[in-house]
Design goal:
alpha+beta
């Protein structure tokens, strides 16, 4: 695309070139604002039998007044079944960080999972802020890499109450 500018710069006034460059910069940026991130501690990981299905495609609603961060949708594990927690616009709590969900594999290939969690400045978990707007996701079935339907639960608009893992840190990968 920049080749176009170089080849045609002589034909375009500097004012128009600057305006076009600004438009492209804004259009190419496209990133959604996210809250400050913090890493998941090893103590947050819990062994799971199988990792989550592939993610769902979401339609992101317009940013509402008061929202300063977008939280991507994620799979959450409840009662041995994966449920899709829809993405949402939120107002970041003062001084809080967000630890996105993570799935890691131990040396033997066993999956370990930690759900997305809000944390205070000391790393303690916080209740999530209320969603100000929620994404929509198709109700189509989720398929695995081989094209087989995955057994997953419905989409959720809000996360169930957080239950911190009860395993000991030495068991984490």
């Amino acid at each position: 695309m920049w080749v176009f500018f170089v080849l045609h710069a002589r034909r375009v006034s500097s004012r128009r070139l600057a305006a076009l460059g600004a438009i492209l910069l804004v259009a190419c940026r496209g990133a959604l604002p996210h809250p400050p991130y913090s890493a998941q501690p090893a103590s947050a990981l819990a062994a799971v039998e199988v990792g989550p299905p592939p993610g769902r495609v979401e339609v992101i609603p317009p940013r509402p007044a008061g929202a300063d961060a977008w939280i991507d949708g994620q799979w959450i594990l409840r009662h041995g079944r994966w449920y899709w927690l829809l993405g949402r616009w939120v107002k970041t709590p003062s001084g809080a960080t967000y630890s996105p969900w993570v799935l890691v594999r131990a040396g033997d290939g066993a999956p370990w999972y930690a759900p997305g969690t809000w944390r205070d400045s000391h790393g303690a978990t916080l209740q999530p802020p209320p969603p100000l707007a929620i994404a929509t996701a198709s109700g189509e079935s989720v398929v695995d890499p081989e094209g087989e339907p995955e057994d997953s639960g419905r989409s959720l608009k809000t996360a169930p109450a957080a239950h911190p893992p009860t395993h000991d840190d030495s068991a984490a990968p």
